[in-house]
UniProtKB/TrEMBL annotation:
Residues 738-824 form the SUEL-type lectin domain. Its EC number is 3.2.1.23. It is found in: Secreted, Extracellular space, Apoplast. One of its GO terms (molecular function) is beta-galactosidase activity. Keywords: Apoplast, Glycoprotein, Glycosidase, Hydrolase, Secreted, Signal. This is Beta-galactosidase. It comes from the Eukaryota. The keyword Glycoprotein applies.
Length: 824
């Protein structure tokens, strides 16, 4: 072979390798195409910083087993660039490792760079230093902002390109997103909004990543950018261009939780209904937001007032365990949708309107056809007659018939087990209920007594000037008052207008009082009687934030801290005299001495200076420390914070997030089970009223060592740590459900089924743990059938048929069901 032949061979090989390894992602007005083939893509959001690298493979594997094709994540700018041009991609911020884990598990990925992300994440993902850049205006046509946005977006794209992670390079990423729901706020930015949005599109396209870019909730998105839908339902959505396929970037699987708010959940039936309807109506890409919500560790929770848990009632719960029956009911749906992928993406569509919100959609490809029968009526079940056969379609449900003859799935009929999770005490501790505590006060003398700060100004400054390095910001001033001052009376009070979000006030070293925003209203008025000494008085106000605003037009400009006015009010009979302190000389200090002194780490200088005597209870601003043994086994670990007020917690220096069990969730939960029928929104199905908003906090196993571990608390309000304890969480009982002629499958996930508490084949009703027999029942003893088939095994499968359970005398039109409650 001569040298030119060799060179030819070399280049053909090179070309060939590049060719086979790349995945071509295109689309038409009907579907996303992978290597030229139309596809349906089922995707789920998992945000890497809301779990730990150790959890990632398991979460992604479970997502794959759950029938997903892709994992979506946002990219969190403020986490990666906490200070300007200082980057962090370590630990749970290791984006590349996360993407490679997705690739290793054989899934696609959707990269929503934003870099504004919303996501109930602090400040919507913007670093607060951005706000402090001179001349900046955020999310509009402003060159300072656009330069920063471009800098970060390019950095991420370059990192990803370098690792060949875009599908065009053979990697897993099939779609990328720029901005986030800008269409919801664009009008409030006037013409500049439109200029900015087009700039975003051009900037993104110029990065040349070889896969499609999307914008969500952005009707003006210019081609070739695809605009996509977010919401609880997107079946009625049409993209803004006939070349764009119908895509749903956020199917909200539940909702987030706020301090003081109720705990929203969304039924499996309604979620499956929304998905089935979307594909009935020509959808091609659907992403669950969230598939795994996880935890807002550290100070990442957005706000104001987003809780540390970001469970979201997602198919995988906060700890990464299956949220059944949601997970299983969707898994079944995914399998069926994939099985008819060809027909529903290539087939001809026809539909039959049966009236009263009942209609059939038929996809026909050559001699195969697949049908969806949808009933969007909220109360009335329907009978659909198709090709001479009658089909019952319950209200608010979709039936899928892959061959247009047999119903293999109905969104309202759950044939998946439900798990009831239980908490177990930490068996690694001899006396788990009584951890031994040491403590130390938060040293506040220099601030509270002396008023010593780091900087001063003759105005009240917004807490965002601190670049949000801490929740805590001290405002200090001295007030000189003589007895002959016109304001001086026995009835003086201090009045503070605050916004964000907690205030603790001190005068002359004495604690005066606290106040915090009530749920949903984030500014407050603090007014309290105050006693001044004649002469100089030291006034110290500590402001604490609980997550900066993450959504809304110009949310970045919302006041944070104590915008004032701050006034002294003197009352003399009917006369009211006001002294405004807002223009006083204020001295400022950021953060907590305890954190400066690294109290949260066992090996630092102040590690030994803790007291074990006279443990204070309900004492404002106290540090507590204890050691504990990691619970045995593999089950997820939580720490019960019952009895505490509000503060921050660390295990071995890893932040668990903010805790606030003393904040009781508002009232208004219904005692009736939630009816899945009818449009869902986050106020529809709620629980946890009147309970601590969040009592249990996730302690990822990777935060713990096998021997002794250290828990440190900064208790801001004052609380009682003696009830704090570590527990594990696992399914305690599982309930199987199968409609007639389906298999009832039951699993204790590797543990043994020890007992059967309930079994019935007939028309029994109720929820797991409280089933009740109905009016008809099969003749054989269902309990002993199930006991024989299941007890002593890790899992079992029993067909729900009359041949197994005997005949039933249920009347016409009754959907017979096998219901079982088992103990794990
Ligand atoms: C959307 C937003 C998401 C998330 C969601 C609510 O509007 O795009 O980031 O905030 O709402 O969970």
């Amino acid at each position: 072979m001569n040298s030119s032949n060799l060179i030819f061979l070399y280049f053909s090989l090179l070309f060939f390798t590049a060719f086979i390894s790349a995945t071509e992602v295109t689309h038409d007005g009907t579907a996303i195409k992978i290597n030229g083939e139309r596809k349906i893509i089922l995707s789920g959001s998992i945000h890497y910083p809301r779990s730990t690298p150790k959890m990632w493979p398991d979460l992604i594997r479970k997502a794959k087993e759950g029938g997903l094709d892709a994992i979506e994540t946002y990219v969190f700018w403020n986490a990666h660039e906490p200070l300007r041009r200082q980057y962090d991609f370590t630990g749970n911020l290791d984006l590349i490792r996360f993407l490679k884990t997705i690739q290793d598990e054989g899934l696609y990925s959707v990269l929503r760079i934003g870099p504004y992300v919303c996501a109930e994440w602090n400040y919507g993902g913007f670093p607060v230093w951005l706000h402090n850049q001179p001349g900046i205006e955020i999310r509009t046509a402003n060159s300072v902002y656009m330069d920063e946005m471009q800098n970060f977006t390019t950095l991420i794209v370059d990192m990803v390109k370098q690792e060949k992670l875009f599908a065009s390079q053979g990697g897993p990423i099939i779609l990328a997103q720029i901005e986030n729901e800008y269409g919801n706020v664009i009008s409030s930015y006037g013409d500049a909004g439109k200029v900015y949005m087009n700039w975003c599109a051009n900037m993104a396209e110029s990065l040349d990543i070889g896969i499609p870019w999307i914008m969500c909730q952005e009707n003006d998105a210019p081609q070739p950018i695809i605009n996509t839908c977010n919401g609880w339902y997107c079946d009625q959505f049409t993209p803004n261009n006939e070349n764009s396929p119908k895509m749903w970037t956020e199917n909200w699987t539940g909702w987030f939780k706020s301090w003081g708010g109720k705990d929203p959940f969304r039924t499996a039936e309604d979620l499956a209904f929304a998905v089935a309807r979307f594909f009935q109506n020509g959808g091609t890409f659907q992403n669950y937001y969230m598939y795994h919500g996880g935890t807002n560790f550290g100070r990442t929770a957005g706000g104001p007032y987003i809780t540390t848990s970001y469970d979201y009632d997602a198919p995988l719960n906060e700890f990464g365990s299956l949220n059944q029956p949601k997970y299983g009911h969707l898994k079944e749906l995914h399998g069926i949708l994939h099985s008819i992928e060809k027909t529903i993406t290539y087939g001809n569509i026809s539909s039959i309107d049966f009236g009263n919100s009942v209609y059939a959609t038929i996809y026909q490809l050559n001699d195969t056809s697949s049908c969806f029968f949808g009933n969007t009526n909220t109360t009335t079940d329907a009978t659909v007659t198709y090709q001479g056969v009658d089909y019952n379609v319950p209200a608010w449900s979709v039936s899928i018939l892959p061959d247009c003859k047999n119903v293999v799935y109905n969104t309202a009929k759950v044939n998946t087990q439900t798990d009831v999770m239980v908490k177990k005490i930490n068996e690694a501790e001899d006396e788990p209920a009584s951890l031994k505590w040491t403590w130390r006060p938060q040293v506040i003398d220099d601030t509270v007594v002396l008023g010593k700060g780091q900087v001063s100004a003759s105005q009240l400054i917004d807490q965002k000037v601190t670049n949000d390095v801490s929740d805590y910001f001290w405002y200090m001033t001295s007030v000189n008052l003589d007895k002959d001052d016109p304001i001086w009376t026995d009835e003086m009070s201090l009045r503070v207008n605050g916004t964000g979000h907690i205030l603790h006030a001190f005068v002359n070293g004495e604690y005066l009082g606290s106040q915090w925003a009530s749920y949903g209203i984030f500014n407050y008025l603090f007014e309290k009687k105050i006693k001044f000494n004649p002469g100089n008085n030291q006034l110290t106000l500590l402001s604490a934030t609980i997550g900066l605003q993450n959504y809304g037009a110009r949310f970045d400009l919302i006041d944070t801290g104590l915008p004032g006015p701050i006034e002294i009010i003197g009352k003399k009979g009917d006369e009211i005299i006001i002294k405004d302190l807002s223009k006083h000389k204020w001295s400022y200090k950021v953060g907590l001495n305890g954190l400066d002194n690294e109290l949260i780490y066992a090996d630092k200088k102040f590690a030994s200076q803790w007291q074990s005597e006279n443990l204070p209870i309900n004492k404002l601003m106290t540090w507590y420390k204890t050691t504990f043994k990691a619970p045995l086994g593999e089950d997820p670990v939580v720490v019960d914070m019952q009895g505490l007020g509000k503060g921050l917690a660390w295990v071995n220096g890893n932040s668990l997030g903010r805790y606030w069990p003393s904040f009781i969730a508002e009232d208004g939960c219904s005692t009736e089970p939630c009816d899945y029928r009818g449009s869902y929104d986050n106020s529809k199905c709620v629980k946890n009223c009147g309970q601590p908003t969040q009592r249990w906090y996730h302690v990822p196993r990777s935060f713990m060592k096998e021997d002794d571990n250290e828990l440190v608390l900064f208790e801001e309000f004052g609380g009682n740590p003696t009830l704090v304890n570590f527990q594990t969480i696992r399914p305690g009982s599982v309930c199987g459900s199968a409609y007639e002629n389906r298999d009832m499958e039951l699993s204790c996930y590797g543990r043994v089924i020890s007992d059967i508490k309930f079994a019935s084949f007939g028309d029994s009703q109720g929820t797991c743990g409280s089933f009740e027999k109905g009016s008809c029942e099969a003749t054989n003893d269902a309990l002993s059938v199930i006991q024989n088939a299941c007890v002593g095994k890790e899992s079992c499968t029993v067909p729900a048929t009359e041949s197994v359970f005997g005949s039933t005398n249920c009347g016409e039109g009754v959907s017979k069901r096998l219901l079982v409650e088992a103990v794990c």
